[in-house]
Amino acid sequence: MSELDDLVELAQRTKYADLIKDRRQLESLLLTQMKASQDPMTREIGSGIAGGTMSWRTLATNSAYREFLTRAQESMATFSLEPALATLTAEAAAAAEQERASGPEPRDKKVEDRATNEPLFDGGLMKKRKPR
Question: pTM for the whole thing?
Fold first, then answer.
């Protein structure tokens, strides 16, 4: 299994489970981060794609963005998922521990009358509702 496979599997057991399945939401998150970048070229690309004046295809085919793509490719070649894996592993473990600590929901949960907040069941017998 690759680091990416490990990352996806771990993310499914955290608060990011829904995010990782939604391509639009992932792209939106990426573009938001790009628009907030300190790098002017990254901000320009993020704003252009988010605003609809540029597409991913434009980015890939326009020579003006060649340097940006070369830098991005070099960065990805040295990028490690280890820190993200460590963070998600810790979050997944914490979520599992919290679930174990809270235990299953009680089966004999009291059901109350919404109007009076009195228990509907008492001693195994159902109480009559009061007329409203």
Answer: 0.55
29 vs 51: CA distance, rounded Å = 14
Residues 6+ apart with CB under 8 A from 1: 9
Query: In whole angstroms, what is the distance from residue 9 CA to residue 86 CA?
Result: 13
Task: Give the contacts of 82 (CB within 8 A, at least 6 positions apart).
Answer: 3
Tokens linked to 105: 């929901």
**pLDDT single digits (tens) 10-40:** 777 777 788 878 888 888 988 999 999 999 9
| Rounded CA separation 87/125 (Å) | 50
pLDDT digits 0-9 by tens, 63-104:
888 888 888 888 888 877 788 778 878 888 888 888 788 766
